[in-house]
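Worked Example 4.2. Consider the chain below.
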Amino acid sequence: MEGGRANWFAPLWAPECRQHPEWRRAAETDILRHDLYFTGPSLRTFVRGRVALVGDAAHAVTPDLGQGACRALVDGATLGDWLAKHRREEAFSRYDLLRRKPFQGVARAARQAGLPTMRPGPAAVRDGLLRAGAFLLR
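Applying the procedure from the previous section yields the following structure tokens:
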């Protein structure tokens, strides 16, 4: 990775705009912190008139399943493929039909996967189980 550094994602519950107490294990300058917010409700369509939304503009998703960038690329490829072969109205309609409902399911799954890290109670239970497992593996 750039500069000999690597990155990884770890969702941790913390109050908005505040550091998680466990972060004291790393230098603050080594951590990029981004608050996550749930969006909703899901859009009824990714298309309006001459505009088609792709990627996070259409379907912001929490990073818990690592699907955001991948799905944005598929959105663009799908829309581009349909636009190359069909009139804009038909291409937009097919794009919306092919991409909206399936991705909304992925977004729901990501939110559910992230729930234990987005609430202090479940996150504490998860953390305790991980610590217990680590202790048993010693």
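The longest strand covers residues 47-48. Residues 3 and 30 are 13 Å apart (CA to CA). Compare this with Example 4.1 before moving on.
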